[in-house]
């Protein structure tokens, strides 16, 4: 091994010569670039198979924008929003909530009516519904920002983006139709509740909301399960089928756990899904 020598004020020091970069080290940057290029090529190849009918729709050009929106949403509701509101009085937002909820009633009704042509609108409605959590934060209802709520509001839009991008319509549209039908009922309840005490006598049916949502998840899972019993079905992207089945099953389990914790273990009748925070009621809102 070669020696190195250095002259210092207090004498000469010697030792092994610094080793030259290994071949692996010299190739590392090249290998990293090759991996990045492979990822880019894979992405470009995937995009070639996107449904051409969805080209030109807002949010659908690249997954980066919708991913950025959802990451910003998660950061706001879990960190930034609570810190902003920490030393502020809660906003009431009653007028905004009335307009917001009744607008989603109309939007969901339109999606149900035009399901064949408006699969993209269903996806877009999921981004609008991120406002649910923002309302909680601004009204300092942090207890309602549960794992179930944030998980649903962030994961569903992200997964639906890929479904709309590659396979709008078909078997997956049943899920959107059922979910929009439930949202007509759900946001109607929220909108009426936001009107205040004047509407309270007409909200006797609120205790049935969680049951309606559980039925929704059962129907979604049963409907999509038919794919597994039809060997001749040539659905172009089976992974979407698997995701919808997982969605229905996972949320059925999560809502069942909520039901057990609140109404069976808690030994109280349902007081479910209060409007976006009407005074004096409890609410868990996820779907």
From TrEMBL:
Keywords for the protein's UniProt record, in alphabetical order? Fatty acid biosynthesis, Fatty acid metabolism, Lipid biosynthesis, Lipid metabolism, Membrane, Transferase, Transmembrane, Transmembrane helix
A GO cellular component annotated for this chain's UniProt record is: endoplasmic reticulum membrane
Q: Name one GO biological process term.
A: fatty acid elongation, monounsaturated fatty acid
Q: What membrane topology does the UniProt entry give?
A: Multi-pass membrane protein
Q: Which InterPro entries has this protein been placed in?
A: ELO_CS, ELO_fam
Determine if Kinase is one of this entry's keywords.
no
Q: What is its main location?
A: membrane
Identify the stretch(es) annotated as Disordered. 1-25
Compartment annotation:
Membrane
- Has UniProt tagged this entry with the keyword Coiled coil? no
Superkingdom is Eukaryota
Q: What is its EC number?
A: 2.3.1.199
A GO molecular function for this record?
A: fatty acid elongase activity
Instruction: Report the enzyme's class at the first EC level.
Output: transferase
TM segment ranges: 57-81, 93-113, 119-138, 145-164, 184-204, 211-229, 235-260
Q: Pfam families under this entry? A: ELO
- Which reaction does this chain catalyze? a very-long-chain acyl-CoA + malonyl-CoA + H(+) = a very-long-chain 3-oxoacyl-CoA + CO2 + CoA
Q: Which family does it belong to?
A: Belongs to the ELO family.
Q: Which PANTHER family match?
A: ELONGATION OF VERY LONG CHAIN FATTY ACIDS PROTEIN 1 (PTHR11157:SF19), FATTY ACID ACYL TRANSFERASE-RELATED (PTHR11157)
- Name of this chain's protein: Elongation of very long chain fatty acids protein
Designated gene of the protein: ELOVL1
């Amino acid at each position: 091994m070669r020696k190195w020598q250095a002259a210092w004020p207090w004498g000469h020091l010697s030792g092994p010569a610094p080793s030259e970069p290994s071949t692996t080290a010299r190739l590392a940057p090249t290998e990293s670039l090759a991996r990045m290029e492979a990822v880019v090529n894979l992405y470009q190849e995937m995009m070639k198979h996107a449904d051409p009918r969805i080209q030109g729709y807002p949010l659908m050009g690249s997954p980066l924008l919708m991913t950025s929106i959802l990451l910003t949403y998660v950061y706001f509701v879990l960190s930034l929003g609570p810190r902003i509101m920490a030393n502020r009085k809660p906003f009431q937002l009653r007028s905004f909530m009335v307009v917001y909820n009744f607008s989603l009633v109309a939007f969901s009704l339109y999606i149900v009516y035009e399901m064949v042509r408006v699969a993209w609108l269903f996806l877009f409605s999921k981004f609008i519904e991120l406002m649910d959590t923002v309302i909680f934060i601004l009204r300092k209802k942090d207890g309602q920002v549960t794992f179930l709520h944030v998980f649903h509001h962030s994961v569903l839009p992200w997964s639906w983006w890929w479904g709309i991008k590659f396979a709008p319509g078909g078997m997956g549209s049943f899920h959107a139709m059922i979910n929009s039908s439930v949202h007509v009922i759900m946001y109607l309840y929220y909108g009426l509740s936001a009107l205040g005490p004047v509407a309270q006598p007409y909200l006797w049916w609120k205790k049935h909301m969680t049951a309606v949502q559980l039925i929704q998840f059962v129907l979604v899972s049963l409907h999509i399960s038919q794919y597994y019993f039809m060997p001749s079905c040539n659905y172009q992207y089976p992974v979407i089928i698997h995701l919808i089945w997982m969605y229905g099953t996972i949320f059925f389990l999560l809502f069942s756990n909520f039901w057990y914790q609140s109404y069976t273990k808690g030994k109280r009748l349902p007081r479910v899904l209060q409007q976006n925070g009407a005074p004096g009621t409890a609410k868990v809102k996820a779907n």
